[in-house]
Amino acid sequence: MESENLNVNPNGEKARNFLEEIIEEDIKNGKHGGRVLTRFPPEPNGYLHIGHAKSICLNFGLAQKYGGKTNLRFDDTNPTKEDVEYVDSIKEDIQWLGFQWANEFYASDYFEQLYQWAEKLIEMDLAYVDDQSQEDIRLNRGTVTQPGKNSPFRNRSAEENLDLFRRMRAGEFPDGSRVLRAKIDMAHPNMLMRDPILYRIIHAHHHRTGDSWCIYPMYDYAHGQSDSLEQITHSICTLEFDVHRPLYDWFIEKLEIFPSKQHEFARLNLTFTVMSKRKLLQLVQEGFVSGWDDPRMPTICGLRRRGYTPESIRAFADRVGIAKRDNVIDLSLLEFCIREDLNKSAQRRMAVLNPLKVVITNFPEGKQEEIQAINNPEDEAAGKRPIYFSRELYIERDDFMENPPKKFFRLAPGTEVRLRYAYLIKCEEVIKDAEGNITELRCTYDPQSANGGSSDGRKVKGVIHWLAASHAVKAEVRLFDRLFQNEDPDDVPEGTDWKTGLNPDSLRVVEGLVEPALQEVKPLDHFQFERLGYFSVDYDSKPGHLVFNRTATLKDSWAKIADK
RNA sequence: UGACCUAUGGUGUAAUGGCAGCACAGCAGAUUUUGGUUCUGUUAGUCUAGGUUCGAGUCCUGGUAGGUCAACCA
Predict the structure, then answer these.
(1) Pairing mode of beta strands A466-468, A392-396
(2) Are A216 and A198 in contact (CB under 8 A)?
(3) Residue A4 has what pLDDT?
(4) How far is CA A342 from the centre of its chain?
(5) Is A391 an active-site residue?
(6) What's the first-to-final CA gap in chain A, in angstroms?
(7) What integer pLDDT is reported at residue A211 of this predicted model?
(8) N or C end: fewer C-beta atoms under 10 angstroms in chain A?
(9) Long-range contacts, stretch A496-502, CB < 8 angstroms, 24+ apart
(10) What region does A142 belong to: left with phi over 0, alpha with psi -120 to 50, or beta?
């Protein structure tokens, strides 16, 4: 769990982000007795994504660092959008990431208290029932440059307001007919302070409170007070809530309740990635992906299925940093984090995605040789496993070129390469079918070249992966690429649907060959298929039908050389 | 045409009035039975104009640029 912070101050201390500075200052001043309590407050209206992961790591990480705790609170104030399906997935994802909340709360737990406070505000002449239509409320709010106009219902007596508000709760009025608003200032330069709506009438079934309510509090009226009820010390949210802060403070001040403080940080943006829940939902509903956990999705469950580890996501959250300026993180940083983790932990296996048959003409027919292959060169404790060498083999089709360019140091007619952990082989003959397609290579091997040696001390630059024909089983291999082809997926030509930016090649399924022992694996086990990248076992995989997802490619320097 | 937030290499993020550093990406080299890893080196930055100060990325003022706000969403 200990995350490395790479930024170091000149005095050698770890660099702090601005939130850590605020908290340390608060602790120093004895605020709340040095207590730190944060919260992660998702609305259960969708699955969590990598942006939420940043927020989770921040909220839980801060509490851990300063000896505090973190609550999980579902912001379930809008019954028309929310569902228990999302509640369950959110809890699962947070735990998978490696965090445990101190308490599981729901904004709906506080509906009665919130209601009582609303009556109090009415009695204080700080709230009123407005009968204006939704349209009129919008019109009379003014614009960012023009002040709004007072509602004709703004000066109702407290008695009348109380009566009306109680009847709203009792269900006497239809949806949209009336709202409860705070009485602040219709000319306030901050639009949020122009008599914000506190309650609206929604005759809908709520996933937790059922049908006991037909009026529901708005976010602004629920969030700060929920923080306050839980005695949250540091309420951390994203930048767009910045303009809500005066209102957050207004309720706490007028109600004279626990003074939670809101702090804002910049949300995560990733190149080639859409992060909006609304858009991700659209991709799912319109069938562009197989579901919220499609391995191409930036959701936590999608990344998990893709083979990302919790450690890699936490490391990523740590490296992107926390600040208040808008940012777009390069996707290559996320890829770096998963490679860094998997390089250390993933066992190596042989696999061939696009097989080309090779016959070793000077190797006896029927003979089989056992070779000990290293499981993970980065981790000696991972040990070795047997693989088998025989006369008939498969190599990767891309590892042979009939007319190789300069600097291609794999197999070509007359050249020699090493088969990883096995022998040096030399290509003697290329067999083709009637159409001229290469169907087979005839090679000879150097019997003296085991264990990295050779008969005369010669070395070769190329080392390729391979599989004995007798020791290879078929597997479905899913290769993924980014879902969107533009660096900024929202940057599409005027008037075009945002989905025009989808990458048509984001999924490729191939039938490959893998080591037979791979039949024993279970979902989410991960491996590095030598030279092909990191792969993990899909949920769909079963003994008769192996399915692997490519988590990440290896860094490919050949691609750059070939480009030049 | 309002209020608020923000501005440091290509991308992020430090420097809390005192040598502009780190990571990713890029480039070059060494090692390597993975064109991987590891190691070394390297390119590249304080939006702008003033002011305060012995000294400004940092403080002040103006400008410029980007973002947020006009749901009975959160």
Answers:
(1) antiparallel
(2) no
(3) 37
(4) 17
(5) no
(6) 42
(7) 97
(8) C
(9) A498/A274, A498/A279, A499/A282, A499/A283, A499/A286, A499/A288, A502/A288
(10) left
- Whether residue A403 contacts residue A410, with contact meaning beta carbons closer than 8 Å, is answered with no
Among the listed residues A91, A120, A154, A267, the single catalytic one is A267
Angstrom distance (rounded) from CA A24 to CA A234: 12
What DSSP state is assigned to residue A82? -
How many helices (DSSP H) and strands (DSSP E) are in chain A? 13, 25
Residue A10, pLDDT > 60, answer no
Tokens of A187: 């000319």
Tokens of A288: 């562009």
Of residues A77, A92, A91, the one with CA closest to residue A43:
A77
What sign does the CA torsion over A119, A125, A131, A132 have? negative
pLDDT band at A1 (very low <50, low <70, confident <90, very high): very low
Residue-wise pLDDT tens digits, A155-196: 999 999 999 999 999 999 999 999 999 999 999 999 999 999
Gap between the Cα atoms of A28 and A30, Å rounded = 5
Active site residue A43: yes
Task: Give the tokens for residue A389.
Answer: 């060498």
pLDDT per residue as tens digits for the range A424-475? 999 999 999 999 999 999 999 999 999 988 888 888 999 999 999 999 999 9
Residue matched to tokens 């086990």: A525
Question: Is 60 exceeded by the pLDDT of residue A236?
Answer: yes
- A546 and A473 Cβ atoms separated by less than 8 Å: yes
In terms of Cβ atoms closer than 10 Å to its own Cβ (0-12, 13-18, 19+), residue A473 is middle
Which single residue is written with the structure tokens 């990883």?
Answer: A420
- Respond yes or no: is residue A245 known to be catalytic: no
**Distance CA A193 to C1' B2 in A:** 14
- Of the candidates A70, A78, A68, the one whose C-alpha atom is nearest the C-alpha of residue A107 is A78
What ipTM is given for this predicted complex? 0.97
- CA–CA dist A263, A19 (Å, integer): 8
Distance CA A212, CA A109 (A): 12
Tokens of A481: 């690429």
- Closest by CA to A46, choosing from A281, A295, A359, is A281
Q: Please, are residues A405 and A558 in contact by the beta-carbon 8 Å criterion?
A: no
Does the CB of A253 sit below 7 A from strand B?
no
Say if strands A37-40 and A69-74 run parallel, antiparallel, or are unpaired.
parallel
Residue listed under structure tokens 């957050």: A248
